Amino acid sequence: MGKTAVEPLIFEISRPGRCAVALPEPDVPPADLPEGLLREELGLPEVSEPDLVRHYTRLSQMNYGVDIGFYPLGSCTMKYNPKINEEMCRLPGFAYLHPYQDEETVQGALFLMYSLQEFLKEIGGFAAVSLQPAAGAHGELTGVLMMRAYHLDRGEPHRDVILVPDSAHGTNPATTTMSGLRVVEIPSDDRGNVDLAALRAACEAHGDRLVGMMLTNPNTLGLFDEHLEEIAGLVHQHGGLMYGDGANMNALLGIARPGDLGFDVLHYNLH
Ligand SMILES: Cc1ncc(COP(=O)(O)O)c(C=O)c1O
After folding, report:
1. Dist. CA 34 → ligand 1 center (Å)
2. Is residue 70 part of a domain?
3. Mind listing the pLDDT tens digit for each residue in 68-107?
4. Tell me: the pLDDT tens digits for 222-267?
5. Quick check: helix, strand or coil at residue 244?
6. From the CA of 215, how far away is ligand 1's center (Å)?
7. Contact at 8 Å (CB) between 174 and 224?
8. 49-65 burial, b for 16+ CB within 10 Å, e for fewer?
9. For the domain that residue 196 is a member of, what is the CATH number?
10. Reported ipTM
11. Which residue among 18, 37, 59, 231 has the highest number of C-beta atoms inside a 10 angstrom radius?
12. What is the total count of domains within the chain?
């Protein structure tokens, strides 16, 4: 991806006695610094001005961005970020915030985040929204751990099975495993839906161990599952929760709300 040369650290190009600034002769008598503030060794790099400028310019040219090439790997949520999002997050009101700033001074940003949560609640049909997870897979992990916590809270720690359709994105089984749970794969039928007979059999086989099911709808084949209500009904009947992978939420936006369709938890990561 573009430049491959290894750029040395600024300390590696440091040479004793080099300096990037030449200050003019003082026009006032020099004053001694207070005793306690003097040190022999500061550990700062000593670099000439051209070396300094070239070092940081070369580093800046190693930045990989959408203007240079396609994003081949990484979080899809971030990969599909349009440039306008980058411009928005560079607005001074966001860019100059400090995480430890006094709450009184960040009321505008908090208002925007709160409003966004309220919009997403309404769009999804859910009781609450968190803006903490930073990408799709991060949202999955958060959601599945919440489902696990729900069962623990109800005194059912033995529940450890998540049903995952064979059409699911790889992050769904990965999330399940990372959460310390077991994946049971559910095949698709001829029309690309979840195979209902196989789902019923899995619910019966693992009913009392069921944490829930992860489902993307429309699924990764681009199909809206024709039996969504039956699927959610079966999982709920066996005490499981429905996790909605909202990667394809764009297709539902303003038409249907996952919370009304039987999902209990969902992440949004838009494509
Ligand atoms: C269906 C589905 N689920 C989850 C993810 C994971 O999202 P992210 O890459 O933002 O972690 C993706 C990414 O494409 C996806 O398509």
Report:
1. 58
2. no
3. 877 666 677 777 677 888 899 899 999 999 989 999 999 9
4. 999 999 999 999 999 999 999 999 999 999 999 999 999 999 999 9
5. strand
6. 12
7. no
8. eebbeebeeeeeeeeee
9. 3.40.640.10
10. 0.97
11. 231
12. 1
